Amino acid sequence: MLPSGLLGKTKTPSAKGRGTLVAFGSAIAALVFVTGAPGVVTALSSGGAAFAAGSGIKANWTVDYDQSEIRFSGVHDGNDYTGTFQNWDAAIQFDPDAPEDADVEVTVSTASARASQKLYTDSLPSPEWLNIGAFPTATVQIVDITGIKDRAYTGTASLTLKDITIEREFQFVLDIEGATATMTGQTILQRAPLDLGQDSAPDADWVSEESTVDVTVGASRLD
């Protein structure tokens, strides 16, 4: 059982709820669009099946998951927290010489988050936060990718989480050497537009409204 007040308002004494990692919900949003980097469907869901196997995208990169990481961070009750997503996959067709023709679909298991404290990990699946029972995955499509300068790119991510779809600009840096590539990216999102933690922590007194996601992806070219 969770400590009183951690996910909602306490009854004695009356106090604002210390929502557990509300910002984490925003992190999943960031996660699914900053992973718009070279990749292919190889990660498995917690049930053992590839998420995006039927995406229809002719992927031309494959992710090296030993060299890849998706990490989220934020502040809860004045303390920094961090964690990672352990199950995600991406069907990616990307040509650095024609980024406007890129075709990207990313799927993330909402149940695969592992936070820096077990209490956070155990609390995140609940209905007010990620509601993994009703929404086991979050998805994103990335379009309109263009080069900014040097190795930097920008595009538009259409994210669907808990049946809510939002569009956000995203940026990433891509280093390609021969048949291998490394993508690094960071983004910050707010939780309110995604209806995360709006009952117990709507004013960000206990949990930061913003969360940060840092992504590193190593990949190899398939064609």
Describe the structure.
This protein is 9% helix and 44% strand. It is mainly beta and 223 residues long. The protein has a single domain (31-72, 82-190, 214-221), classed as Lipid/polyisoprenoid-binding, YceI-like (Lipocalin, Beta Barrel), CATH 2.40.128. A 10-stranded antiparallel sheet has the order 3-4-6-7-8-9-10-1-2-5. A hairpin with a 2-residue loop joins strand 7 (152-161) and strand 8. It is elongated and about 50 Å long. Mean pLDDT is 73; it is low at 1-50.
Key traits:
Lipocalin; 223 residues; disordered N terminus; ten-stranded antiparallel sheet; 10 strands; mainly beta
Kindly summarize this structure in a few lines.
This protein has 223 residues and is mainly beta. The protein has helices at 22-34, 118-123; strands at 61-76, 79-85, 88-93, 103-109, 113-115, 137-149, 152-161, 164-177, 180-190, 210-221.
List the helices and strands and how they pair.
Blueprint: H1 22-34, E1 61-76, E2 79-85, E3 88-93, E4 103-109, E5 113-115, H2 118-123, E6 137-149, E7 152-161, E8 164-177, E9 180-190, E10 210-221
Antiparallel strand pairs: 1-2, 1-10, 2-5, 3-4, 4-6, 6-7, 7-8, 8-9, 9-10
